[in-house]
Amino acid sequence: MMSLDRFRKNYIALAGAIIILFYVLVALLSLVWLPQDPLAMNSAEILKGPSFATGHLMGTDEFGRDIFSRVIVGSRISEIIAVGATGLGGAIGIFMGIWAGYLGGRWDNVIMRVTDVLFSFPTLLLALFIMAVLGEKTFNIVVAIGIVYIPQFARLSRASILAIRSSDYVRAARSIGGSRSYILFRHLLPNILVPIIVQISLSLSVAVLLESALSFLGLGVQPPAPSWGNMLSAARKYMTFAPWTAVFPGLAIVVLVLGFNLLGDGLRDLLDPRLKNVA
Amino acid sequence: MGRYIAKRLLSLIPVLLGVSILVFFLVRLIPGTALEMYMGTQVEATPQQMIELKRVFGEDKPIPILYLDWLSRIVRGDFGYSLRTGRPVLPDVLGRLPLTLEITLIALILSLVIGLPLGIFAALRNGPVSDAVIRVTGLLGLSLPQFWLAALLVLAFSNFQGWIPMGDFVPFLRNPFQNLKMLFFPSLAIGVGLAAVIMRYTRNSMLEVLQMDYIRTARAKGLSRKSVVVRHALRNAILPVVTIVGFNTGYLVGGAIVIEEVFALPGMGRLALNAIQQRDYPLLQAIVLLIALLFVLINLLTDILYAVIDPRIRLHEGSDT
Amino acid sequence: MKQIAPRIMALVVLTFALAPGLFASGQTETTAPAAATGGGTLTIGVDQEAVGLDPNIVTAFSSFTRLDLMYNRLVKLDDKLQIVPDLAESWEVPNNLTYIFHLRHGVKFHSGRELTADDVKYSLERILDAKTHSPGRSYIDVIKQIDVVDPYTVKLTLSSPLASLLAGLSSTNCAIVPKEDVEKYGNLQRNEDGTGPFKLADWVPDNSMTLVKNPDYFEAGKPYLDKIIFRVIPEQTSLLAGVKAGTLDMATLSDGSLILQAKKDSSLNVMTTPGINIRTFSFNTTHKPFDDVRVRDAVAMAIDRSEIIATAEMGLAQPTGPVPSSAGQWALPMSQLPFSTPDLAKAKDLLAQAGYPDGFSFNIVASPTYEGGLAVAQVIQNELKKIGLKPEIQSVEWGTYIDRWVKRDFDTMVELRGGSPEPDRFLYRTFYSTGGVNNFMFKDKEVDALLDQGRQLTTFAERKPIYDKLQVLLTQKAPAVFLYTPEQTEILKPYVKGFKVMGNGSLLFLEETKLAK
Do A279 and B158 touch (CB under 8 A)? Predict the structure, then answer.
């Protein structure tokens, strides 16, 4: 498939990987060290601008908390939600898609109609609904975004399975007596991997955006835990005269999402031979 | 083709039925009832009053029965009355629809106006540097949270008289110019992402076409570069872009929901958020059903368009279900 | 060099930041040419839409502020929150079970018909009828009988004395409505026919409500304005921006940081007055360990009101006890109430005595809306950690918040209680063991006895000692920690004259407002 060497030459994918690696390192670092306590309030330092002198490199929020530290901790929350939701939605969706695509028939019909229904909602609206039902907890965001992802992964993996189910080498494997599960895992799975990897990186990026939108609408991560989304949500009121409260968490989102998108885009080039000549 | 469309339209019925069930039950799974919201935290009621209120708010029957009641009424076009305002639901919802559609449409136009020329330009200036710039810019456009971009726009342009709507929204028919001016930034905020997608697809598609034999032939025959690009390459390159645009239009509708909240625009999205907050079930059900219908129709339209452009899809679709 | 970071940020928003300056010169002046006195259109920005127009039925505060201008009650509150005449020009109280109201002559409904004592009787009976579901019913349910003495005199007979009757009648929920309209439309949720200074002209929900001058208003010469437009703008930031930009003439603001910002702007007039709502940190007194008064007291001692006010309200609030400090004569000063200054050592002692030397975990239910007090919850959480408690905030969407409130599903909750200048109105329904909004499930015989006593007496001198005792007792028994009363704030363009801010948030003084531009 792809060699490390080709990956290294694909600057787009490389840049994405470096950004993501940086965020992961920051998140890991935040477990052992933080510039300041992200929860410590200081009523004497409310909404102070960024400055080296006070040590608040990104300023303070409406409780006098250090925004820099909060943005750092926020990376942990966003990454966990992105990975969790993509993992959950991906696992269930891929399983359903393969099942539907490989078995076909009635199950295929049922599963596809369910995904059709879920597909009839704009993603944010569906996630919003599920959050309202489940209640505002960090774990529930993972579930809500995960559910939104299920039909996407299901459709994608079903389509890929359909495309190759009837291909020569699967027929050959079947004719020499390979068991169903053997064929599924030995032949089918590796072949649908390419579009799924691309979909995963796209899903990771959308999850970060969805989390921030949910928190922005007040249905997200529980305070005082700092998520970028709820930082932005709080900043709405102060941004006209304390723009740093909105600018930095927003930038943190943009760069991480860009990282996932760069990686996904680069991987698509690497993995999808059709695009090789073009890009 | 006609059979294909008819078949697709028929297949919408079970989907919409599914949507109606999902909506009806999800709405009632949200903690809190419309009656509780109506009472708030400061109002007292006697037990007799409560019984009467429960009847008025339709909380006196099992949910499946209520669902069948509701379904049989909406089939006849009766969406019921809002629990909060007592007004009929449908006119209020339909009254909000044009604004949401207008934002979506302007966002679509803006994204085409931005994305197409940039994509063509990038294809013509093909090279490693321009390639990197275009791709990163495009991906950046995809990476901006719409509400954040919207908030930055408000921050930046709040001194522009009439450009940022502040609850003083003007309908198109009353003053088209003022209306368009106000919807420019909200539409831009949700259009940027699609513009980025369009730019990338246009570029890729153009590059692919420019490499085709007939283009090379045309160039070899001595046609000017400009005429080759405009008359031959562009026409062929634009087709795949059209389908991408179609598939993403549905997401513009989703984006409009958040944007209406940020810019305080009285569209469907804000109506939906209010209805969720107030547990105004009849209103919420109608809105979500309508949004879903809109969403599904746009996707269907795209599929049809796609099938028209690429007949292979029709055959493929026909063979596996 | 120490301010490097802002510069980086400045770069980020460079394009945005520069642009407005470039265009500022081209900005057009939208304000209309000067009108001498009276007349003109006033546009006011508010953050919530009205939900329904029937004054006897609506529960939303946002409806009250509009309906106040379209309807009248028998009596109303002035800007000092004292009872003054409205439709009744005077009244007598021969004994504490009888009230006789003398109505103004020549008051006309917007339909043109004259208002008489029959309308008063009809409206009060409508409010008292359980089928109407009027929130006003509980304010006046002691009324046993309503007699029309003559077309301009109404006599109310009570089943038991109620000191807060007049305060109850001043509620918008007790507005006088015309019988024929109620009968014609079923209710008045979509139609308006009041006697007030303004008439409803147009209502586009979630956008705007337009009121026009009632030329036949009973107070000669008033109102001065020709038209009032309410614009609904949910974003507080946009409200402020709207007044600055001139698309709004005034706006009601609740967010402290924005009010501070408005105060710095010399082109704006910021009017504030102490409000009558009370921010409370409420306990569910049936949930362990908050059933133990020592635990509640320990929490009360650990809470620093000044820190909460400084952070959550940007300093724009006054500390208060059970009676809003703005209710002047009734309120005991903070210094005479227990736990008015934090004492962490004593709080820890009390916790140890109660059997929780190492603290315990519990939830704080809050909501991101202003009423939901999320910011307050965060400060309190921070403060309570200092005495070893482990509070967990559950910030829920507003609808869920109400649901949790109704179901008493919380250990503690941050609330904004609608207070009243009349102590009986607020305290009875809130802390009486069977009180309608006693969601603390607080039951205390001593408190009940005092509350009963207080509402049956009519003179201030008799009642004052009882409510003084109650204020101390309630603070000690702490069904809730009483935190502060937020200020009520309007921001106005300087040419808006004659307006007064009322502590209860009413916009009644729009009838006396003029534009001088």
Answer: no
Q: Which chains border C (3 or more CB–CB pairs < 8 Å)?
A: A, B
Place of tokens 């908050």: C290
- C330 Cβ contact partners less than 8 Å away, ≥ 6 residues apart: C323, C421, C422, C423, C464, C467
User: H/E/C letters for each residue in C140-156?
Assistant: HCCEEEEEEEECCEEEE
Would you say B166 and C247 are in contact if contact means Cβ atoms under 8 Å apart?
A: yes
For residue A159, report the phi and psi dihedrals to the nearest 5 degrees.
Answer: -60, -40
- Amino acid at residue number B125: R
Please give the model's pTM, rounded to 2 decimal places: 0.79
Residue contact C59–B38, C-beta within 8 A: yes
Phi first, then psi: what are they for C29, rounded to 5°? -90, 120
**What is the Cα–Cα distance from A68 to A182, expressed in whole angstroms?**
51
Q: Which helix (H) or strand (E) holds C230?
A: strand C227-232
Contacts of B92 (CB under 8 A, 6+ apart): B82, B85, B271, B283, C205
Which amino acid, one-letter code, is at A110?
Answer: V
Low-confidence stretches of chain B (pLDDT < 50) are 313-321
Residue C478 CB coordination number (10 Å)? 27
Extract the tokens encoding A1. Answer: 């498939």
Q: ipTM for the complex?
A: 0.82
Q: How far is A7 from chain C (nearest CA, A)?
A: 31
The separation between CA A185 and the C-alpha centre of its own chain, rounded to angstroms, equals 26
* Tens of pLDDT, residues B127-164: 777 777 888 888 898 899 988 998 888 878 877 767 77
DSSP states of B114-153 as a string? HHHHHHHHHHHT-SHHHHHHHHHHHHHHHHS-HHHHHHHH
Which stretches does DSSP call E strand in C86-124?
88-95, 98-103
Interior angle at CA A34, CA A31 and CA A38, nearest 5: 100
Length of chain A: 279
